[in-house]
Amino acid sequence: MREIKFKGKAMMTNAELDSMHFIHDNGWFVGNLIQNGNKPWIAGDIVESDPEYIVHDFWVRVNEKSIGQFTGLKDIEQFDKPKELYTGDIVSMHQFLFDGEEVENEIVGVLDYDEEVAAVCLTKMNNKQIQRYMGYGSDENGFKQEKIPVCMFYGLHECSWTYLGNIYENPELLEGESHV
């Protein structure tokens, strides 16, 4: 069964979180997403419950734009503890293509979920090689708008993912033309 969890950036500052003894990763929390109207919260596991109440390990209000769902993918470049990858993460994918001859290729893009195809996809890619290889065009900024399911990349040959940042904290990673 696939693991369903979310990450989000707390609305409180790191100093406020530290003063309340929250365990966090620079203000980021991983857990269960709870929507209370238009106010999203990340809550930890249930530590106690009965028919009248429920107690979570923690709960914290998060910025709606920062929420990402776990994709099941991991950055295996971090051998000691592979980093989990979430929707909204900006990743670099290193792969080898075969187009009459083997071609080493690197693609930078954003992980997203496409409900139409029910798959984790890579979008906003900055690589003209993959656009040509898979027959896609690009927008005026040089980044793809189409979503390509990540499973399609595995069929091309082999690939690995590297975490670069996320669209909430690092939008500058998507600016400009490809340097690949």
- Secondary structure: number of strands: 13
Overall structural class, as computed from helix and strand content, comes to mainly beta
Low-confidence stretches: none
Question: How many domains, as an integer?
Answer: 2
Q: Assembly type of the shown chains?
A: single chain
Shape: elongated
**Helical element count?**
3
Percent helix range: 10-25%
Radius of gyration over C-alpha positions, nearest whole angstrom: 19 Å
Biggest sheet, open or closed, and with what strands and sense?
Answer: 6 strands, antiparallel
Overall average pLDDT: 81
Query: Approximately how much beta-strand content do the residues carry?
Result: over 45%
* Spatial strand sequence of the major β-sheet: 6-3-2-1-7-8
* C-alpha termini separation: 37 Å
Organism: Virgibacillus halodenitrificans
Pfam families: YopX (PF09643)
InterPro entries: YopX-like_C (IPR023385), YopX_protein (IPR019096)
Protein name: YopX protein domain-containing protein
Describe the structure.
This protein is mainly β and 180 residues long. The protein has two domains: 6-66, no CATH class; 68-174, no CATH class. Helices cover 11% and strands 45% of the residues. The strands form three sheets. The protein has a six-stranded antiparallel β-sheet with strand order 6-3-2-1-7-8, with no helix packed on it. A hairpin with a 3-residue loop joins β9 and β10. It starts with 5 loop residues before the first strand and ends in a 14-residue tail after the last strand. The mean pLDDT is 81.
